[in-house]
Specification:
The complex is a heterodimer of chains A (about 280) and B (about 280).
Chain A: H1 7-50, H2 55-70, H3 73-90, H4 97-101, H5 103-128, H6 132-140, H7 145-175, H8 188-199, H9 202-234, H10 241-245, H11 259-274
Chain B: H1 4-17, E1 24-35, E2 38-49, E3 53-57, H2 64-71, E4 79-84, E5 87-88, E6 91-94, E7 97-100, H3 103-110, E8 113-116, H4 128-138, H5 144-157, H6 173-185, E9 191-195, H7 203-219, E10 223-227, H8 231-237, E11 240-245, E12 248-253, H9 255-260, H10 265-277
The chains are: A mainly alpha (about 280), B alpha/beta (about 280).
């Protein structure tokens, strides 16, 4: 592809720059993992509270969800990194200034809040699908609220909320590219930009970004699909993770007559995982 | 709202009720339950003695199931008092005012009561064994070893010794209901509430489930409050039958009397309709 760029120059600059690209990749992974973890916690807490029958609990949760779901991630980032410090400038005595000046932390928090608010809706909606009779059975066994939620209701809603959470986590990973606007957060997008600017090799650099984010998203998705298969198996639906990961049961190999059955089971497990 | 005569009757009857007698395990005093404007139960008074098995019969909508759900605290009591072993279940009379009992006290009392539901309501995210041991371990604080041993003997008792590690979803309706019975019994309840436990089952497995309940009735001293349409079972098992209609007790008495020679025309009509269908 000589008409696009000089290959030799490209690989030369790439090898010179590979350490920084790997650093950027690591930052992106950290943003996705820490931001995802924070978003998960926020989603669970807000989602459960938003489903409460008590208005004084449900009301504030709803306001928080609608607010953080409605604001742009980009604007939120700008606000947190440029507006928030003004309060500390005006009042130097306020505690926690280091936190406000830690732009990596701000990136994590902004991602967590924004996607956590989305996730809260998935959590809340999934919890409502657990039938009331399940709650009644837990009451008949005198379980405490926390016990009911942790051991009975949440595990049943879990399988249902996982596909939505998978979606949101992949969104969050890609959304983390926006965080490169923050000073001092040198994620993959930031480093790719750095590489592009002096070398002017844009095609291949952009391609690296494209492929890397795709692979990261694929890894997240596969991991979440495994969680989903496990959750479904625990509810008595679909094969166990072990059965899915074992390519073919050894007993089916020598027996050719058993082939149609084993392929049927194979498609079953695939469709189960995709759902 | 009670009529003037009712309220005076309630006032006079309420005096000895502030110190309910030791004997009844369940006591309903002027119980009222309304859903919005719909009054399901009104001025209901009855008591169940320890070890007594009482069957509630009557047309659907007569409030039988609501009575069980009130005892299990699945419904809020809108009027009157329910005492379990002489202790107020949800509300008590404090200096003439009806106040709610503390949540902690309610919870304490609730552990003595078990319930089996029409739709089994097993937890699909747990195995059969886990369904049975979950509450004994985490609510009653029993050791895992004891709870598991007890669960296995209960599974033996309900005829499912080999299903401990099965998933509820892999069991038939009759098997699920037998697990649900084992789950309720694992808590060693003093009171067992059976809410139309065979209504959702295939006809051919109804007898299996009833046989297990008969055996529980014969071998334990559990007080039972039963709502069922299985009149033969009710006749065999219960000490007392109460006929309900429109939230009122139409008639109550020994099953032999009620089923063969009821006093009230309403009871006769209901029984001929139910037994005729059988």
């Amino acid at each position: 592809m000589d008409w696009l760029e000089n290959q030799r120059e490209y690989f030369g600059s790439l090898s010179n720059f590979s350490d920084r690209l790997l650093d950027g990749l690591w930052t992106t992974i950290q943003l996705a993992l820490l931001g995802g973890a924070l978003a998960f916690v926020i989603a669970i807490v807000l989602g459960i509270v938003a489903g409460s029958p008590r208005l004084w609990l449900r009301g504030p949760a709803r306001v928080l969800i609608e607010f953080f779901r409605g604001i742009s991630l980009l604007v939120l980032l700008f606000w947190m990194v440029y507006v928030l410090p003004l309060f500390w400038m005006a009042n130097p005595d306020l505690p926690g200034e280091e936190l406000v000046r830690n732009s990596f932390l701000i990136g994590v928090v902004a991602l967590g809040i924004n996607y956590g608010a989305y996730g809260a809706e998935a959590v809340r909606a999934s919890l409502t699908t657990v039938p009331n009779s399940q709650w009644e059975a837990t009451t008949a066994l005198s379980m405490s609220w926390l016990h009911k939620m942790r051991r009975v209701v949440f595990p049943q809603a879990w399988a249902l909320m996982l596909p939505s959470l998978t979606n949101l986590w992949v969104h969050l990973l890609k959304g983390s590219a926006i965080v490169y606007i923050l000073p001092g957060v040198n994620d993959l997008t930031f480093e790719l930009n750095n590489l592009r600017r002096p070398t002017d090799i844009w095609f291949s650099h952009a391609l690296i970004g494209l492929v890397t984010y795709f692979i990261l998203a694929l890894i997240l998705t596969l991991f979440m699909h495994a969680l989903e298969a496990r959750a479904k198996h625990k509810l008595g639906r679909g094969p166990s993770l072990k059965q899915i990961l074992t390519p073919d049961p050894p007993t089916a190999v020598p027996d050719s007559a058993g082939d149609p059955a084993s392929t049927a089971a194979g498609t079953d497990s695939k469709s189960g995982g995709a759902r | 709202m009670p009529t003037p005569t009712d309220s005076t009757a309630a006032a006079t009857s309420a005096e000895p009720d502030t110190t309910p007698s030791e004997n009844p395990v369940i006591e309903f005093v002027d119980v009222e339950k309304r859903f919005g404007d719909n009054v399901v139960l009104k001025d209901l008074n009855f008591s169940v003695a320890r070890g007594e098995r009482v069957t509630l019969i009557g047309p659907s909508g007569s409030g039988k199931t609501t009575i069980l759900r009130l005892v299990m605290t699945l419904e809020e009591l809108t009027g009157g008092y329910i005492y379990i072993d002489g202790e107020a279940l949800s509300h008590e009379d404090r200096d003439g005012r009806r106040v709610e009992v503390s949540k902690k006290a309610q919870k304490q009392l609730r552990t003595r009561i078990g319930m089996v539901f029409q739709q089994f309501n097993l937890f699909p995210n747990m195995t059969v064994l886990e369904n049975i041991t979950e509450a004994p371990i985490h609510v009653l604080g029993r050791s895992k070893k004891d709870a598991v041993a007890k669960a296995h003997s209960l599974l033996e008792q309900v005829g499912l010794p080999d299903k401990a590690n099965a998933h509820p979803t892999s069991l038939s309706g009759g098997q699920q209901q037998r697990v649900a019975i084992a789950r309720a019994l694992a808590m060693d309840p003093e009171i067992l509430l059976l809410d139309e436990v065979t209504s959702a089952l295939d006809p051919e497995v109804v007898d299996d489930v009833l046989a297990i309940l008969r055996q529980v009735a014969e071998t334990t001293n559990v007080t039972m409050l039963i709502v069922t349409h299985e009149m033969a079972f009710a006749k065999d098992v219960s000490h007392k039958v109460m006929m309900f209609d429109g939230g009122h007790v139409v008639e109550e008495g020994h099953p032999d009397k009620i089923f063969s020679d009821p006093d009230e025309e309403r009871t006769q009509k209901f029984l001929s309709a139910v037994l005729g269908n059988n």
